[in-house]
């Protein structure tokens, strides 16, 4: 869900890995019957004990806190790695809040939010019983800068003073001067510029403590030292099979978020998605106490489940901050003409697009770029009102005004991946809608790697393509800044500012919002900025994905927040 300078230089990819591992979106689905909630109440209160089985398609590879790219501490990783702050483990909108984890609060900023101070709770211990200190957190962050441990979120490299030049502790053994530990329980971060959303970044696994004496570099992932309720006892084939058992030195009195009901957690990956859903539906043997953290239900499966009330009761619905949209590159004709972009905005038939994405159960039509949650600052707007099915007549009128009275022909880049986001089905729906407005659309389907290389390239980006974005945390910053901040245009790497917008007024407003530590006030400003940018028709928001996942029949206490959109494994209990 993933950037830098407020930036997700990998959001599109990472966000998409957490939720999209099943072909859905960027941070996962899970749920419990409604927009997040709990299940299994009829069976009584959740109890400790038993084994929870996790059936996944993607392996939990790179199980090292420095290399993981997770928001809120991740799902399975969050059972082993505690961080300074974490996500609130509650259903729905309440789950979008950042709360203390290892720290006593969410951080204390100085006047201009360029310095953040944290105090650790008392009584924190690693799995071997040794105390967790501020030096362990400082070292854990520093090792994430090492080239050997690449893959984690890049925010600290961009935000910390000296972070852009730091190469980690393995080269020369030097520490990072902008992280100060005046005593064993205090840690201070010195930033290059104001960052009011720093508490959200402190949920990333890079903030997990790592004891320097136990650091084995690239091999650390084989047995990372736990600070959470579970420790790793088996890690086979780079995370394909993980077994977690209780960490006896974890003190629940210091951890208000993780329930840690099961005694053992058995994570098995590399499975076919259809097999996962079938096993969860059948729920025989150990599968009765099983969940998935990366596999969604598709339209066909939902249709089958709909006629079975018992199965339907085990389907959870989740919402994550993610938007599928049509992107324009105004550097390419005819998309340099605002009226052409407006015409396409009017011509889109969102009903057909939603159907192509799996139907209204799996996609919610939108006219705003920001997801429809308060945490992001969602502000309703529809600058080009065309109803659910589009307004071809209005589109034709605008094309005429743009100098194309006889229509025009354009090419739409899309992925060949069957992900129901940027896939052929969605592209075809766009093609058919624009055709009614006199716009002939030629489809250019590319395999995923080629598709991403083109849409993320400043040099070779086409003028018109399908795209998607998911935020690293539930706020407007990691959603709007990577897409519309002109200073984040990347000419020699992955560029997410598809429109290559470099508006001084937009850049300034982003900086002003970043100074705010009042997250509600910041959210309102992000929403207003989204509405203002939307007037330029630099993109056409299409829909926000909805995640549907099945759980085994004996799984209880399913909690799904709007932070992740998926079941929170730290809350689950089994019979």
From TrEMBL:
Segments for region (Disordered): 30-49
Signal peptide: 1-26
Protein keywords: Signal
Domain Solute-binding protein family residues, every copy: 97-487
Keyword flag Aminoacyl-tRNA synthetase: no
Membrane-traversing stretches: none
Name of the protein this chain belongs to: ABC transporter substrate-binding protein
Organism: Streptomyces litmocidini
Organism lineage string: Bacteria, Bacillati, Actinomycetota, Actinomycetes, Kitasatosporales
């Amino acid at each position: 869900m993933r950037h830098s300078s407020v930036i997700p230089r990998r959001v599109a990819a990472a966000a998409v890995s957490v939720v999209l591992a099943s072909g859905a979106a960027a941070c996962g689905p899970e749920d419990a019957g409604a927009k997040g909630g709990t299940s299994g109440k009829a069976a009584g209160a959740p109890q400790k004990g038993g084994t929870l089985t996790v059936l996944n398609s993607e392996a939990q590879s790179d199980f090292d806190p420095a290399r993981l790219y997770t928001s809120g501490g991740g799902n399975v990783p969050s059972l082993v790695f505690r961080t300074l702050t974490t996500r609130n483990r509650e259903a729905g909108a309440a789950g979008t809040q950042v709360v203390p984890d290892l720290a006593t609060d969410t951080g204390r900023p100085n006047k201009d939010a360029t310095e953040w101070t944290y105090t650790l709770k008392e009584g924190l211990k690693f799995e071997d019983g040794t105390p967790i200190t501020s030096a362990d957190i400082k070292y854990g962050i520093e090792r994430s800068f090492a080239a050997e441990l690449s893959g984690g979120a890049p925010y600290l490299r961009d935000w910390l003073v000296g972070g852009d030049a730091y190469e980690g502790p393995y080269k020369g053994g030097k520490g990072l001067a902008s992280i100060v530990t005046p005593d064993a329980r205090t840690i201070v971060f010195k930033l290059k510029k104001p960052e009011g959303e720093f508490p959200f970044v402190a949920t990333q696994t890079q903030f997990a403590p790592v004891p320097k004496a136990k650091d084995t570099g690239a091999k650390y992932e084989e047995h990372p030292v736990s600070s959470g309720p579970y420790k790793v006892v088996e890690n086979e084939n780079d995370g394909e099979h993980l077994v977690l058992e209780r960490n006896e030195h974890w003190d629940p009195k210091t951890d208000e978020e993780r329930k840690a009901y099961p005694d053992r957690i058995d994570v098995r990956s590399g499975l076919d998605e259809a097999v996962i859903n079938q096993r969860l539906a059948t729920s025989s043997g150990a599968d009765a106490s099983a969940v998935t953290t990366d596999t969604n239900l598709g339209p066909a499966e939902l249709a089958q489940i709909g006629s079975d009330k018992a199965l339907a009761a085990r389907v959870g619905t989740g919402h994550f901050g993610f938007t599928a949209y049509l992107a324009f590159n105004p550097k390419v004709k005819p998309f340099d003409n605002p009226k052409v972009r407006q015409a396409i905005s009017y011509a889109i038939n969102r009903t057909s697009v939603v159907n192509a994405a799996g139907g209204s159960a799996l996609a919610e039509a939108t006219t705003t770029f920001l997801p429809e949650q308060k945490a992001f600052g969602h502000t309703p707007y529809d600058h080009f009102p065309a109803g659910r099915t589009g307004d071809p007549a209005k589109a034709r009128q605008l094309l005429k005004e743009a100098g194309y009275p006889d229509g025009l022909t354009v090419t739409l880049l899309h992925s060949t991946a069957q992900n129901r986001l940027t896939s052929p089905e969605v592209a075809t729906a766009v093609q058919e809608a624009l055709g009614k407005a006199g716009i002939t659309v030629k489809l250019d389907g590319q395999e995923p790697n080629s598709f991403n290389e083109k849409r993320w390239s400043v040099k070779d980006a086409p003028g018109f393509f399908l795209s998607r974005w998911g935020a690293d945390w539930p706020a407007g910053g990691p959603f709007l800044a990577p897409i519309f901040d002109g200073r984040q245009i990347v000419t020699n790497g992955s560029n997410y500012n598809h429109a290559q917008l470099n508006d001084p007024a937009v850049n300034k407003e982003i900086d002003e919002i970043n100074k705010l530590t009042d997250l509600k006030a910041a959210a309102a400003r992000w929403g207003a900025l989204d509405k203002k940018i939307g007037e330029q028709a630099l993109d056409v928001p299409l829909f926000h994905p909805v995640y549907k996942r099945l759980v085994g029949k004996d799984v209880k206490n399913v909690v799904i927040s709007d932070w992740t959109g998926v079941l929170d494994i730290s809350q689950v209990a089994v019979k």
